[in-house]
Amino acid sequence: MHRSLHGRGPLFDAEPPGLAARLVGLRPYQLRSSPQEHQGDLPFVVFAGGRGIGRTALLAEVRTAYQGHTPVALVDAEEAQFTAPPPERPAEAWSPLAQALTTVAEQLAEPVKGAGRINFPRLASGLLAVAAGGWSDRDVPRIRQEAERILLLNDARSFLDGFAGRWVGKVVAKLVASMSNTGPVVEPIIEATLESFSEGVSPTHRRLRRAATWYRDYPNAGGNPKLGLILLSGHFRAGGDSRAHAERYLVRALLADLDDAYTGVMQRSHRLGRPVVLIDNVQAPAGRGLLESVLHDRADGIRDQVVFFSALRGYTLPHSRPHSGGGTPVSLRNAGRRSLTEVARTTGWEPGASPSSRALLVTLPPLTPDDTLHIVGAACRGLEMPPELPHATHRLTGGSPLGITLLAESARQNLPRGARSLGALLTADVALHADHDGHPAYRELLDRLVPGGRLDELTVLAAAHDRDSALALAEDRLPDDFGAAGVLGLQERLTEEGWPTSAGQFVGDPFLRALLLLRLHHLGTGHTQWQATHRAVIDHYGERDSPDAARYRLHHELALGKADLAVAHLRDAFPDTEVGAWLSELVFIASAPYYHAHDPEGRDFDGHDHRAAVALGRTDPAQRPPEGVDDALHLRVRRLLHAVWQLTDPLVLPDPKVAERLRFELEQLSNLRPGGTALLWRASRDWPSDALAGRSLRVPADDEDGGQG
Question: DSSP secondary-structure letter at 207?
């Protein structure tokens, strides 16, 4: 079995069956049945995660796994076609959800192996009634175009065989002819539609007649399908909660048409598994409307047998609908919550009474170091690749599938050109399409991770540590109209889009922060923006007297290339500070970003990383420690700071020689603090191997020490 995604086995496994096989009833990529986990109520699956975690790729792979074997549809609710009505179409006769239903039905109608097309007469009747609310007898060409698209959902045969085209043309002619007078056209259109559906004696027409009567159960229709469709059209045009009510009925019509296609012995014998609807960016209006309609109906006891897989940016839906469509919002507060690995063999899901309990929210994990090794290795097959590159790639990206894939592609293109570090791979051009010019890899990543504007502002705020320092930066470095509201808005946006928070960082995700700071370094010429931003943070914390303020200042001084203040602080604090706290401060200060000098075009001007030379003691002879200090301790702390700075830099490959020197320096320091020997000794053993393996440096816990220093 071919599978292009790594780390997603719990969804795609065939034996034992993963989540997709158990819900759909078909093995992925195979026309073979699989035992179904849920026979009655089905969970509405919501894959959740931040940008770059692979939600879109996951849904695309599900479509690939089932296309041609069972009806499957995939829509991206953020596509332009779902954001605004087409030209000439009035807004009162269009909505993102109605557009999405048309698109979903068109895809589900496609024939699959062993079974023909599915027709959607109930949905088509409702969509025609809605569209007619925006028609007049003066726009016949548009009426023909819209009516033809909707009516083609009705025929079980292909448009290409000619019959469907003739039938659609005949019905459209009848609809146009019904508008012989000026004034409202909804009622005559609905009347002509129902008449057309009632003609003929073929099995197709029998299904049309049966479907035409379905709207007699619409609230207040009194058993009259024509009145039901008129009320539906009126509710849709009214907007707000009335429109949400009508849209929910349209969703119900789609699901009823699908149920018809699977009802009866003949239909079931020809159709294996369940139909699949895939919704990317379900938080957008088109996706959210579909989600809420299905969840409300399922909670009301209206069952369907459609497998819904959706992708949510972030981990929660906004508290209120992001549009004016009205309706009762669903927050997913009561949804079942699992990780992808937890649903590998069973969902353990049971629905409750509330609509949101009918959803199953599945968080997507980052890829593992082994996944990264395979992805980078496959991209660089046949190339001379630094052995530390896969581990360093995983450390930088944190397992982001987007980051790993794009860096692997940059490595494939740029290793032969001499790029030897992750920083070089990020700043080098990468061409993602053969017919497009290349752009720096970090810019390609930021275009995908931070779309929608405010990239310039977020680039500056990436240097901040908390809301206060972000506000100070905004006041000093950003336009006056951005201000506090802009800072709070960006902070909220990061949370809504699923980016993690982290104590001591305004941008909590290390990968995103590294990309933003790299962009900051490349803004303008002479790195003036870089220098001014870090200087502004230093000035902000210079007004405060606290341990955190001190280490923040030193962190940014180091980012400007000034290591003397950090060395003096760590040297003077070593004898009396608790060892664990001292090591933690060392790691934080040394996490300062480091960049070589660049020319005005952003290319490396020097290219030499001076930190390794300092860490290995090669610059010691030229150093003159300040008078009155312990020269040996001063130089040792200086070497140690530069060693940690180099080994933890996410944009470079860790130097094994520096890692060995780190071990030695920590061992020697342990001799100077008898009460804290165990912590320093433990760090001397763990830190070098962790750094070379691409793991963060973990400060040993106090309980690993035999005493306190």
Answer: H
